[in-house]
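S1.2 Input.
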Amino acid sequence: MQTEEQLYLCDRAGGSSSSAAWAPYIGVLPRNPIGTVLDWSRKDVDTLFAGSGLASTAAMIRIDAQLVWQDLQPLLTAAKQQGLCPADMFSKADIYWAIGICMSRSVRLADRGDQVVLVPFADLLNHEPSCEAYLLWEEQQQAVVLRPDRDYSPGQQVFISYGPKSSGELLLSYGFCPPAGSNPHDAAHLSFSLQDSDPWLQAKQQALQRQGKASSESFALRIDGLPAELLPFLALCAAQPQSAADVEALADELFAGRWPSIGWRQL
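S1.3 Output.
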């Protein structure tokens, strides 16, 4: 979600245009705290994610929000000096609120080039881990639609999926966790790296870079299976090739999903 949309949300939430078309929607959005990681204290982050790979993700979300606030300062200062907005509009709390709303309520529409949007009132639908129904863009109707994955009786709550997210990811972005044991997408995040003592370290770093990978990667290990790129990464880390050319060929075959034809002796 772009800064322009975040400022628009702040503007409307501030009541500068209560008769605007979106006022009913803005009026039902939750106020602070929303529940995302932006509302947490540093102590909460350190306690809840101690020993977890999500600690760095939480830190990056908070850093990105701080950078947005810093980048806006020249624009907001100039606007207030020119009388284009009240002096008390667009506080840091306002901006963080708008970022939190965009984090917790935006929808990615794959059929519109992965465009990220807010869908008024549809974002009131709750997530259910086993649900496979998503908000989709219907080109013929020129509308966002929901096709339920199950039958519902009158009065039952209708669920959607926010995506195959672990409980930790849901906690970071949405401020909630499913009941323990109910989320098939729960994962333990483990990091693996090339060894500094590896005689082929530089060749492997270059091979990984060409595959769009870093020399240190974090993988989400789920109960229902391993991530597809974990074994290729570990295989390359453990390989004992005969030449730099072998490293490149091995990486090409591993990350293309083929077991290397250059032989097991190198793994």
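S1.4 Remarks. Strands lie at 106-109, 115-118, 126-127, 135-138, 143-146, 159-160, 187-193, 216-222.
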